[in-house]
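Lab manual, section 2.4: Encoding a predicted structure.

Procedure: take the sequence of the chain (340 residues), apply the prediction step described in section 2.3, and record the output as structure tokens. A sample record is shown.
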Amino acid sequence: MDKESAVLAILRQFSAGGIQPDPAQNRVAARLAGLLTEVMGGAGKGASGRDANRGVFLWGGVGRGKTSLVDATVAASPRGMACRWHQLAFLDAFHHSFAGPARHDFAKAIDRLVGSARLLAFDEFHIHDVADAQILRRAFCHLAERGVRLLVTANPPPAGFGECGERQRHFAPLISFLEAWCESVELDGGVDYRRIDRHAGRRWLVQDSAAAREGAMVELERVRRCVESAEFDALCRRPHCHDDYAQSVESAGAFALWGMPRFDERDGDALRRLVWLADVLWERQIPLAITAAAGPAATFECIGDNLRHLLGRDLARAESRLIALCGLAEQSLTSASTSP
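Recorded output:
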């Protein structure tokens, strides 16, 4: 496959369902096609020079199409050449492998997750935890030595993760690695496409009553079978990790979240868990209904500057995804990429 064919293959996957790529998305598709043809040609395999092994760090605002372009690139690649992981799922799987089948062999645990793939698509990169940063740096270094290319998505560029205060020294080695081994590519056409869909947010209901819940369930059952539901407090105000959310929605065709409040500056833990839940639901493209005390903008407007600074990019992504999932209809459902 030459680069022109790769561009067409990526855009064909990206445009499934009638999506028309904008100029910024077309430009990024061309760069990802170049990466794909380099990987297919074996460039960088076992190479000792950094330039031969460079991947792509794709960044930009929420809802710009980063994940869709990465998924299209993975789908356009020959079978087994690329694998795709969401960061939190990758870390969960690593811990299970490291403590289980890999028998505390770090390299073996990582190799089990990536297999023989020569391109690792790594979605929603972020760093909040020092231990996670150390694991990721060691994992990426190991994969680079194997000749595996990286295709990473995030909201800010690598340098944007330098605003970590006293913890910066713990994150600096990972940031430096990504800056050295990946080309930074911005995707930002200025539009959050998840918000402009005419159905966006239609099942975000600004009331929490028996009638509202019943109506939401009826709406969801028209979209998907096997509708599951949960109270917000039970899901997000109790101790849960990302893997708990992945398991809780594993068999859900659609999901209803009841009683979401207006948040304030005391709700940092609950908001972090809401971000994890939103990511899990989006990964699986699970239609959602929400009963809430306020609309999307008012729900998050009182969280305070400190919390907004801490969660800003992740929270913006979660809000955008929740709104989109509250409008997801049967005809717009697509198969989410899965990890190996």
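Check your result against the sample. The CA atoms of residues 34 and 112 lie 27 Å apart.
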